[in-house]
Amino acid sequence: MYKRSLVSFTSLFIFWMVISGVVDLQHVIVGIVISLFAVWFWKSLNKRLPSLLSPRELLLFGRCIIILIGNVIKSNINVIKILLFADLPVNSIFLELTPGIKSDWGRVFLATCITITPGTITIDFDPDTDVFTVHALTQETGVALYYWSIISEIKNLEMLVQRRKAHVFGNGRISDSDSISSVKSDNRTNRNR
Predict the structure, then answer these.
(1) Residue 49 pLDDT level (bands cut at 50, 70, 90)
(2) Half-sphere exposure of 122 (CA within 13 A, CB side)
(3) Can you say how many angstroms the Cα of residue 130 is from the centroid of all Cα atoms in its chain?
């Protein structure tokens, strides 16, 4: 828990220094105070925060981000072509997308990716049926969402995280790989007793 608080503090402080744009004593002190206060205020959420990503998961997440950046650039060019050079009126569509992503963070990440990409926006998500309602600027853009490579990348990342969470230790107990018990104890059973 201490490590997570330290990471949160460091991230918040770096973010503060970047957005302040000035490195002087006043900004450093205010950044430290605000970062410490934010970490202290939200400390009860530490138990509910997702676990940190393993190096393999981090690489896969980085790959998702790179794919997303490429799609954003490509979609920006397509939207510019449509808006500036299209003679016909734009025929936008609404569609329902069922990607099969089961985790909450995966669904939020996909909805964010769809919304960040120009020409598409996530309108609604029904968790009971796993259906995303999406508005697309053109029919081609909407159909391309059904075959979007980032959906399979999110599924792969989701599978890796699930596999790590179902980690089985040598003593037969199933435990979360980053749980407090696995860090503070050696998880060995004494079978001689």
Answers:
(1) low
(2) 18
(3) 18
